[in-house]
Automatic annotation (TrEMBL):
Lineage: Bacteria, Pseudomonadati, Pseudomonadota, Alphaproteobacteria, Hyphomicrobiales
Cofactor note: Binds 1 dipyrromethane group covalently.
All copies of domain Porphobilinogen deaminase C-terminal, residue ranges: 227-293
Protein name according to UniProt: Porphobilinogen deaminase
Family to which the UniProt record says this protein belongs: Belongs to the HMBS family.
Enzyme class: transferase
Amino acid sequence: MTALRIGTRGSQLALAQASEVRARLMAAHGMDEADFEITVISTAGDRILDRPLSEVGGKGLFTKEIEEALASGRIDIAVHSSKDMATAIPEGLVLAAFLPREDVRDAFIGRTAETIATLPEGALVGSASLRRQAILKRMRPDLRFVILRGNVQTRLRKLAAGEVDATLLAIAGLNRMGMAEAATEILSTEDFMPAPGQGAICIEARGDDEATLAMVRAIDDLETTTALLAERGFLAELDGSCRTPIAAHATLGANGTLNFAGMILTPDGTAMHETRRTGLVGDAASIGRLAAQFLVEEAGPHFFASWNAPAEPG
Ligand SMILES: NCc1[nH]cc(CCC(=O)O)c1CC(=O)O
């Protein structure tokens, strides 16, 4: 048989995710490494490193070139961090599987202090994430922020070099790279709600490639897929506006229930709206969508209008 071609970004985290997918497919189907070919594809998100994600196009930035390779048949599957995926998937492509979720929480990584609470007044925090900045500003309005982009190692190097006092990273990424010890404080999902999809690897394939779809669906994790339906439903209803700090976290409860939490904030952290609700797993997507509609209504038009207006030309 011809090798299954896996498309991925080239960062250490992306390669670790592709290896995990390969290992799970090998275990499920009795295949070995020779049955796979890992193809590294560079994305705009890997090349543009000096501006916040929200300015250069947000979601899609880490996926477009990979999706083009998939659609054109240069690769058979694409492996992504679900957090980086837009809610609209290009025509002809499908999210065929989600792997069992890693730790969904964020970690604080401090150089001059080990915890958020003990950071010195006015400390400089590096992050390109509007969500992390907004949540942190609520907790510590005195902190200053600078955009810190690049892959996880680059960011940790900039931190170690003293460019910033602290940064925040997903524990999932640190764990996958064997760098869990970098975290100086683990942030609970209650204090620091994660991004929709955080910690979940997804596999994208062509919707008409039945053989590949069957192979990949064998490693799908139903619990993660269900949680992601709710979180991505929430994100889709908020229109995935890349300038809206959005957080969401769904977990499965007893007796077929799903617990959902969603939050929207203004980028300066001064306004925040949050909802928590429980429903049935079969309604996962609509639980997320209704939660978003509720928050949009509660927040009111001024919440978005004040800061989400398109930039003036020039
Ligand atoms: N946008 C970068 C990105 N996309 C996914 C992860 C972490 C791994 C995950 O959430 O699955 C990261 C780095 C980070 O936020 O620390």
